[in-house]
Amino acid sequence: MGIPTVGGEAVFHPAYTRNPLVNAMCVGVLPATGIVKGQATGVGNPVFVIGARTGRDGIHGATFASAEDPQAKERSAVQVGDPFLGKLLMEASLELIATGAVVGIQDMGAAGLTSSAAEMASRADGGIEMFLDRVPVRETHMTPYEMMLSESQERMLVVLERGKEDVAFTILHKWGLEIAEVGRVTDDGLLRLWFHGVQVGEMPVRLLVDEAPVYHRPVQAVAPVWLPSTTGTGTDMSVPGQVRAGNVQNGGLDSTLDSTLDSALSVTTDVALEQRALTLASSKQWLLRLLADPSIADKTWIFRQYDTTVRASTWVGPGGDAAVVKVPGSAKGVALCTDGNGRYVALNPRRGGAIAVAEAARNLCCVGARPLALTDCLNFGNPENPGVMYQFAEATAGMSEACQTLDTPVVSGNVSFYNQSYGQDILPTPVVGMVGVVDDLDRVIGAAFTAAGDSVVVLGPSDSMLGGSLLAQETVGYPWGDAPALHLAQEAAVQLLVRDLVGRRLLQAAHDVSEGGLAVTLAEMCMGNGVGLTVALSEAVGSPLGWLFSEGQSRVVVQVAAQHLADVKQAAMVAAVPITVLGSTGTTDLTLGDATGVWWQLPVEQLQQVYQTALPTAMAAVDRPLRSEAAVTQRDSHNLQSPEAGNN
Q: What's the whole-model pTM score?
């Protein structure tokens, strides 16, 4: 379809083993004067179905996605997309819109014709009358019920200006696509359906769209509970699998970490957590372990399976804080990112929801973009569970607070409930997709250190609390403590400062502090271009592990050339943003220390080895048994064939 995959995230947790989530965001650009809405205006205007024929695939797809029973009897064939046909439909639709003949257009997604027709009529405060025997179908004996609920892909519902139908027929036939007039716009506010001259349905549009039943489900605050295993070999997380990053091969990771972790029980304070972790391994070993965690490890193995540069407009590709795509015919760019952390939301739903929004906006600011708006996918468990409803209500409230503070409206989105398997809910996972604008592409910066001899600075508050961190989960065996600290006013100040400094060309690189804490952030900045860093703090750090691995929010690490350091300090003071000078770039090692001396150093090459090989190694380990199982299945299938079948 000619759409580059420019970014994304991959998060791994046992809670998703039997119910994996896939959320996608697609972003386009258009002239402000060329917007066509999904509305059915103009009484008497004809309504058309264009694109693929309608089949039985996907019937009840929307309701099945929100069903608890995995064996639901109403489940039909899964809808299958056709990218080539989708490309033809996309180009034909754009050409048709350019003629000015289109009054309204909407794709057919969940609930197919039902939702598209009802929503388009509702937006125009009118109605639609449809004649279902005119709908092109690819299967025989389809009922009106099936036609209205089919979720066959690559279809559009289009309202044309009366008298311009020939233009549409010419364009659609040129692209080899079907077009059929299936109805007309009315002013009675009804969705009226006919089939072979018989009226088979009539309902006020408002009942389908604006006045649908509202559930008032009970809400009950329930603290997350993950009980230590009675066997001492892991934890009972009420979900399949164990929380383990696994040993790092050839990475220098202490092989005794796993056995020591398995003996860990519950803790009550950050101090106790740190004391125990310090007895398990040095912070150097913890950094290597976190770099090998699938949620942090290099995702090149994933995004190299996609085309990231088709159409040659990708300015910054995947792997950084945010992707940037050039706006055709302009010096501006569109920045995009996605964020979400179910672990935070499970521990503190309101704060976790706010963090999802804040981190997405912070990532955009790191490349110099101004956040504009967001879409979301709210993935939660069974809403009939009062605890899940509490998570949902609190998480959305936190997202709302963050959106208001950061001035980022929610312009679209969807909700996915009943994400559970065998009665076990997923982690509450609101995923945010955010878009920003870059006014000058030449000012965009990346996340990796670019040269030796520059200062490295942290903008934002210091934090040593380990609650909610990946380190805490790895130490205890399950999400632990409270979600990381977030103060929205401070978050807004840090983001504004970073955008200002990037715009003034005072920064060489910028990378936000998120999962894995400051240690992982610094390692990632070193690994990008193989440039080392020496951290030499002027004061003693009382809590080294907390300083390194806390995931406290509102922090950005920046690289500053020597001649700009004074200006950056001055700007931070004016913005009332705390600033800490960590050290300077150079050498080929990551070296950490404070006033007490050097803690440790690691070659950047060793960091890269661990970071870059962890995910491919893990995927190869998963792929081998799958291939073996497939081979056995294929062999057994062959052996079951009759002699007659083999001779045909």
A: 0.86
